[in-house]
Specification:
Protein name (chain A): Cytochrome c oxidase subunit 3
Subcellular location (chain A): Cell membrane
Radius of gyration of chain A: 27 Å
Helix content of chain A: 40-55%
Strand order of the largest sheet of chain A: 6-5-2-1-7
Mean pLDDT of chain A: 90
Organism (chain A): Nonlabens ulvanivorans (Persicivirga ulvanivorans)
Membrane topology (chain A): Multi-pass membrane protein
Low-confidence stretches of chain A: none
Largest sheet of chain A: 5 strands, antiparallel
Number of helices of chain B: 4
Strand content of chain A: 5-15%
InterPro entries (chain A): Cyt_c/ubiquinol_Oxase_su3, Cyt_c_oxidase-like_su3, Cyt_c_oxidase_su3-like_sf, Cyt_c_oxidase_su3_a-hlx
CATH class of the largest domain in chain A: Mainly Alpha
CATH superfamily of the largest domain in chain A: Cytochrome c oxidase, subunit III, four-helix bundle
Mean pLDDT of chain B: 86
Number of domains of chain B: 2
Number of strands of chain A: 7
Shape of chain A: elongated
Oligomer: heterodimer
Distance between the termini of chain B: 58 Å
Number of strands of chain B: 4
CATH topology of the largest domain in chain A: Four Helix Bundle (Hemerythrin (Met), subunit A)
Chain lengths: 332, 135
């Protein structure tokens, strides 16, 4: 490591870096300061999320209604259980990491490699879980329509439980005019390509089902319980909104619109969980590199497993960030 | 612990007490499992509260729901034990600890306070101001 440093004749003395004022090696201290700066980056994202949420405090989506899927339990409402599971997976892989660090202090190569392997597996399961979470978020479940002003209108039955578009909308004809090979384009259509339903089909289906209501983004406080809930419109108001203000169908989520509510909600979801997922992914790579180094005996020869400790610090930091993302995205 | 050789057997120097000495573990490994159990319990409480959402916790303190205060405090408790015991901040000298933790805590509180106040202000402008399109 210090082969690139020219000898100055002060090695081992204070001026030559011989003493460690904070009783930590250079590498470990720099890892701590990197973590500090990375923590500030994540705080910036989460604070920006808080800013936008406070700005739209009366119309922010309710996380429980958005993240309610669980593998192999399709159709059941399981709010937060999946992210709770992900939290346990990440804390578990943090534990195996700290056990690897501890085994490193005892110079126990076998144990270090075993625990590192478990950590890598935990990290991979976590990244896979996040991909599944993204898939559900992007595909959406119920579908919605958007208004001229960019607000989202969702459909419910008379009691207020959500109704998906495919439960009441019939897909009609899609007039597509085929063009020849020499026309520059292959076909022409007046309807938007890509969405399953057109706004007229939604209007028709809505008119045919007198039970249906519309739910707006607006959050109101339930007088009895004090809980926040979405404002449910009467049948007449719903018909008026749908026929006069709705302009398009929204299914699932992307960066410019989503069926859950404010577009910023999906933007922050993609950005923050994506940035965290990228950290987990790079953490898995670091762990793999030191795992192979442990197998090759690099740290055995170096006489210190401090590299495991430094990468361990990074890995725990990733876990630490998730604790905050979990709270501010899913709980609060 | 001035040189590397001393550092490699640093396991002898782990502080094994948590909760201000209320619980003392016999070894570092034991402490790790103990902290895992504690963190899991907190997470279970968080998920249970988030699932049930008791109506009695819907009141507001300082503009924030009591339930959300509980979530935030439990999160900070979790963050403390991850940093102190998994990342071994407990075993570092106070200088390093303060350089990292105080800096971060100060800047993060500052950032959050400014942004949340500003967000609340813009909400008020959208809601109440006579002119809301150019501010």
């Amino acid at each position: 490591m210090d082969t690139t440093v020219a000898p100055t004749g002060t090695e081992g003395q204070t001026w030559g870096g011989g003493s460690n004022p904070l009783k930590a090696s250079y590498g470990k201290m720099m890892m701590w300061f990197f973590i500090l700066s990375d923590a500030l980056t994540f705080s910036g994202f989460l604070a920006a999320y808080g800013f936008s949420r406070f700005k739209f405090i009366e119309e922010w989506p309710i996380a429980d209604e958005v993240f309610n899927h669980f593998p192999f339990m399709h159709g059941t409402d399981a709010p937060m259980f999946y992210v709770a599971l992900m939290t346990f997976i990440l804390i578990g892989s943090s534990v195996t990491m700290v056990l690897a660090v501890d085994a490193g202090h005892h110079m126990d190569r076998k144990k270090v490699s075993f625990y590192l392997l478990l950590t890598v597996i935990g990290g991979l399961i976590f990244v896979g879980s996040q991909a599944w979470e993204w898939k559900n978020f992007i595909n959406g479940e119920y579908g919605a329509v958007k208004t001229k002003g960019g607000k989202i209108l969702q459909f419910t039955d008379a009691e207020g439980s959500r109704v998906a578009l495919n439960e009441f909308v019939t897909v009609g004809e899609r007039p597509v005019e085929a063009l020849g090979n020499n026309e520059g384009i292959w076909y022409q259509s007046d309807d938007p390509i890509g969405s399953t339903y057109t706004i007229d089909e939604v209007r028709k289906g809505f008119a045919a089902n007198p039970d249906l209501r519309i739910r707006t983004q607006q959050l109101i406080v339930n007088e009895e319980t004090g809980a926040s809930e979405k404002l449910l419109l009467s049948r007449e108001e719903s018909l008026f909104k749908l026929n006069n203000q709705a302009v398009g169908v929204v299914e699932g989520a992307n960066l410019s619109e989503n069926e859950y509510g404010a577009p910023l909600f999906a933007d922050f979801f993609f950005f923050i969980t994506g940035f965290h997922g990228f950290h987990v992914f790079s953490g898995v790579l670091f762990n793999l590199i030191i795992f192979f180094n442990v197998l090759l005996g690099t740290y055995e020869r170096r006489g210190s497993y401090e590299m495991v400790e430094k990468v361990g610090l990074y890995w725990h930091f990733v876990d630490l960030v998730w604790v905050f993302v979990f709270t501010f995205f899913y709980l609060v | 612990m001035a040189d590397h050789a001393a550092h490699t057997d640093g396991h002898a120097e782990h502080k094994l007490e948590i909760f201000r000495g209320l619980v003392k573990f016999k070894s570092n490994t034991q402490k790790i499992w103990g902290v895992l159990i504690f963190l899991s319990l907190i997470t279970i409480v968080e998920v249970a509260l988030g699932y049930i959402k008791p109506d009695s916790l819907n009141g507001h303190i300082l503009g924030l729901k009591i339930l959300n205060w509980i979530f935030i405090i439990l999160t900070l408790v979790k963050a403390y034990y991850i940093t102190w015991d998994f990342m071994h901040m407990r075993d570092e000298v106070s200088g390093l600890r303060r350089a990292v933790v105080w800096t971060g805590v100060f800047l993060i509180i500052y950032l959050i306070a400014i942004l949340l106040v500003e967000g609340e202000y813009i909400y008020q402008v959208y809601k109440n101001a006579a002119v809301s399109f150019d501010f």
